Amino acid sequence: QTKTGIALLYDEVSENAYDIRLKLTKEVLTIQKQDVVCVSGSDHSANHRTVTLRRQPVGGLGLSIKGGAEHKVPVVISKIFKDQAAEQTGMLFIGDAIIQVNGINVESATHEEVVHLLRNAGDEVTITVQYLREAPSFLKLPLDSPGPSSDHSSGTSSPLFDSGLHLNGNSTNTAPSSPSSPIANEPKYEKRWLDTLSVPLSMARISRYKTGTDKLRSNAFEVLALDGVSTGILQFYTAQESADWLRAMSTNISDLTLQNMKMANKCCSPSDQVIHMGWVNERLEGTDSSQLYKFKFLALKGSSFYIFSTPPVSTLDWVRAEKIYNLCEVLFKIHKLWLADDCWLQANLYLGIHQDFDLEDQRPYCFSVMVGHGKSHYFNVELGSELAVWEKSFQRAIFLEVQRTGSKTYTCSWQGDTLCFTVDFALGFTCFDSKTKNVLWRFKFSQLKGSSDDGKTRVKLLFQNLDTKQIETKELEFQDLTAVLHCIHSFIAAKVASVDPVFIDSQSIARKYMYSN
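== SNTG2 protein ==
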């Protein structure tokens, strides 16, 4: 299904906006601009048309004009009146810029100068015109010709004066002149929407923010293709229109991403499937404010979480990721949508992992992925629905990886002894001597009642003895404590999910937020 509509293309340099038409298909977004085309006859000069108008006793030249050099735009035809001189030629259109009047160049003339010339040009006026494809929106030109009744570019009037030349000028001839009419072999012209730019949506990305900043564009966004080609800033007349187009384009991009994932998964083993991938913005810490955020492409595949600067297109591209993390050792956390309850996993209650970020930025739909050695990546997406998908996908990818792996063992130490600490999906926690392999202690997941750590290397795990009901404290020291805590979190969460999947769904912050909206 194709979606079409009128929007504005905003030029940040000139600060002008131009009327465009958008055409959205499943795979491509096309931008169209209006132009006048020759549909029959021989057209010697495709760009310029020269037309002779015969001034009529009633209706004059049958047109109105707007603009002028004082507004930094050419004088353009703003209205063409039905059944009058200008319309009868079949060669003039609303949006035509007047280049010459009776051989006099008026490209740099003011509005009043052109009005004066046209009014005093006699009964036959020869004008040369060229269609102004990028007419600034402040001219408020109607998008269709003829007649002012079809003005749907905007409900407001233009700040520029609209001079009507449908009144008589200084005519010397009192007899009614023959009407202006096209000659049989003269070329015929039509105003049409022509394709000017096509942006493929596969792996495309959308941004509602001014580049690198937290400043949200008002009712506007840009679409960037995989090769970097941009639509420019697409501006909409209402917030509703902007939201509808944003949703429609995001949906099409997501559908194409899904197709790409299915294609990629045909070449991958069942244990190395892509669960989800897509564009996000990453907040860059400690950089100058003009580059606060940067586009990144994330993927959840097999046992790993990947961060790319550009999407992986071939199987070889997966090795060139900027960062690759083991899924068992990362922690997904939503920001900006905090509700009364905690994050999506019951495991937080056990582990007390609360590393809240400084949330001074203005963007909603943010999440962080905490990784080893206490480091984090902070991301933002454009829509709440995307946030919900990332939340669900991280859960699924982590749970699958835990079930596939079954167990993870880390080297640790306590009081000078080198030990091994194993987290096992079936057995829970086991600690044994690395040399003798003798088991020192073993507890089920359900026996873990709490934990505390020094934020560096040491952790205290509090277990309840099933027989005595007493709490036993086990202290261990790890090289990368964060990775171990995340791994415990992942295993407990996966265990809870396998026993009570409804509980996990009930913890979804992003989805609760979406339903409440």
